[in-house]
UniProtKB/TrEMBL annotation:
Region (Disordered) residue spans: 159-179
GO cellular component, one term: plasma membrane
Enzyme type, top EC level: transferase
Organism expressing this protein natively: Kitasatospora atroaurantiaca
Catalysed transformations (reactions): an acyl-CoA + a 1,2-diacyl-sn-glycerol = a triacyl-sn-glycerol + CoA
EC numbers, comma separated: 2.3.1.20
O-acyltransferase WSD1-like N-terminal domain ranges (all copies): 29-175
Protein family: Belongs to the long-chain O-acyltransferase family.
UniProt GO BP: biological process involved in interaction with host; glycerol metabolic process; response to hypoxia; response to nitric oxide; triglyceride biosynthetic process
Protein name as catalogued: diacylglycerol O-acyltransferase
Keyword entries, A-Z: Acyltransferase, Glycerol metabolism, Lipid biosynthesis, Lipid metabolism, Transferase
């Protein structure tokens, strides 16, 4: 029996980010705007009825999962789904193997989500060697932070609060004034990114996913030796991997201070007092320069420590939170067009945080791989997450890019090179 959650009295309007994401989905494949997490488990698979009962028991802590997007296309709004049925959101399929993350992630890329229902789903993937669970949501329904918080609510090892009551009233916090620096973020970058072979092929819209896993202790050792954060180490691995993927783009005589390859790094703009923490897109991006022209792994990491300190991320999040509270929709669309232009920013990166161990009915999730969106015009998205002492990474590429299958091996070799350099 589904436990009916206690709903807040007033639903928030769709954010500028929500509406922009819906607009992007209408221009291409809707499933390209789906994100989530693929989770692998050992042992015999539960039944679909088992999963339905499990989700129903935890739904009280996630009332946002009963909301849908309603209203006319020009004025969309959040509304409670009067016919909500958790059974319509739990799906099942079979694969020859659920132990191969590449195969499982690929199987989940193009699964539809019903537009007239809350735009999320949980898939049970059965096989003869273990099973998998995959949570997916439309990016207009949830950003990465909200999606991972939902995964924790539904599958967190420590049983969460059964029912979330109406959030306490918080005073209206009017956004502060927009500074010139904040408004500048809406303008196109002054310079294009460095020439990159990844943009040398017309995109097909067909996607390919590959994955890689590393022991977290290896990243922690580099972090201790260099003073870098684990996230900065991951950015250095992405830099070295991309340099090795297309070495012809970075000749020996290319100055280390050249343009570099620019990427959008996803950041959360969700405030701590958000009363609908599992609802809507509150994501922003930081355009950062990956120093692919620099041959030294340690120097790459050092440059990224300067480029992406925690204080810069926190400041950008605070500025953009104010920006999107004041921003008209048309202005947000203009700013997004500039930030997603592949001539300036041809790829995206994300650090996907899952803060609690995950399990189903006492069986631990032994591997978890992010399922990122496909950003229009961009041929590559790299996303990573930490799970049970391992860092697991997904490389989502357009099929037009040759050599996409080489990325996991290059990621591993980049880790080895950085370890060796840091240990000297």
């Amino acid at each position: 029996m589904t436990q009916q959650p206690t709903l807040p009295e007033a639903l928030p309007p769709l954010s500028v980010q929500d509406r922009i994401t819906l607009d992007l989905a209408r221009r291409g494949s809707d499933s390209a705007m789906h994100l989530g997490l693929v989770m692998l488990l050992a042992g015999p698979a539960p039944t679909r009825e088992d999963v339905i009962a499990h989700v129903s028991a935890r739904l009280g802590g996630a009332p946002e999962l009963t909301y849908r997007i309603g209203g006319p296309p020009g004025r969309p709004r959040w509304e409670a789904d009067p016919g909500f049925d958790v059974r319509r959101h739990v799906h099942e399929l079979e694969l020859p193997s659920a132990a191969d993350p590449d195969r499982v992630v690929a199987a989940m890329l193009d699964r539809p989500l019903e537009e007239d229902r809350p735009r999320w789903g949980l898939w049970l993937i059965r096989s003869t060697d273990g099973y998998a669970l995959c949570y997916r949501a439309h990016h207009a329904f949830q950003d990465g932070t909200a999606a991972m918080a939902t995964v924790e609510q539904l599958l967190g090892a420590a049983r969460p609060q059964a029912t979330r009551t109406r959030p306490p009233h918080t005073p209206d916090r009017r956004p502060g004034p927009l500074t010139a620096l904040t408004l500048k973020d809406l303008l196109p970058p002054a310079r294009r990114t460095a020439p990159w072979s990844g943009l040398g092929h017309p995109l097909t819209g067909r996607r390919r996913a590959t994955t890689a896993g590393l022991e977290l202790r290896r990243l922690h050792a580099v972090s201790r030796a260099t003073g870098a954060s684990v996230n900065q180490v991951c950015l250095a691995l992405a830099t070295a991997t991309l340099r090795a993927w297309h070495p012809q783009d970075w000749p020996v005589d290319h100055a280390a201070g050249g343009r570099g390859l620019h990427a959008n790094l996803g950041i959360s703009l969700r405030g701590p007092d958000d009363s609908h923490r599992l609802l809507g897109n509150r994501a922003g991006v930081l355009r950062l320069r990956l120093p692919c022209a620099e041959p030294s792994p340690l120097r790459q990491l050092g440059l990224l420590q300067e480029e992406v300190p925690f204080a810069r991320l926190a400041d950008l999040a605070a500025r953009h939170r104010r920006l999107f509270q004041k921003l008209p929709y048309w202005c947000g669309k203009l700013g997004l067009r500039h930030s997603l232009d592949p001539r300036y920013t041809p790829l995206s990166l994300a650090d996907v945080r899952v803060r609690r161990p995950l399990e189903f009915a006492g069986t631990p999730v032994h591997s978890a791989y992010p399922l990122p969106v496909s950003v229009p015009g961009q041929p590559l998205f790299i996303a990573w997450t930490a799970n049970r002492a391992r860092l697991q990474t997904t490389f989502l590429t357009d099929e037009a890019l040759p050599g996409g299958g080489d990325l996991p091996g290059l990621w591993h070799r980049s880790m080895e090179a950085l370890e060796h350099a840091a240990a000297r």
